[in-house]
Amino acid sequence: MTGNLSALPPAETIDMLTDYHFPPYITLAHMFHAPQGWAIRNREMTQFILQYVVDGFAHYPIGDNPYETRRGDLLFHRPNEKHSIITENHSPYVCISLVFHFGTSGFPYEELFKHKHHLGNFADHPVETMLSQLVAHYRQPGLVHQMHCQSLLMRILAEVAQRIDYGASHSKSDALTMPKLVLIKNFLTEHYSREIQIKELEGVSGLSKNYILTLFRQHVGMSPMQYLTWIRINKAKELAIQSNLSFSEIADRVGYSDVHTFGRMFKKKTGQSLTQFCANLIYV
Question: Which PANTHER family match (predicted)?
Answer without folding.
Answer: ARAC-FAMILY TRANSCRIPTIONAL REGULATOR, HTH-TYPE TRANSCRIPTIONAL REGULATOR EXSA
